[in-house]
Amino acid sequence: MYAPQFFQDVDLSRWPNIVRYMKQCAEREAYGDAFGSKVQTYLISALDEMMSGGGKDEKKKLFGMF
Length: 66
Fold this sequence. Notes:
Strand content: under 5%
Order of helices and strands: HHHH
Helix content: 55-70%
Oligomer: single chain
Structural class: mainly alpha
Shape: globular
Number of strands: 0
Largest sheet: none
Number of helices: 4
């Protein structure tokens, strides 16, 4: 959950199973309780966008490598 929250220009859509898992975690009520509804809403939206293949025109690599 660190990467999509703090590296917002990074596209993780090449790993759809990881994106799906992170979205499932973010959707849990306990996640919202722990991190706040604003963070939860942002992450769910960002991960939905990655799952749909949307996103920014210029994709950046994760840590400049992936």
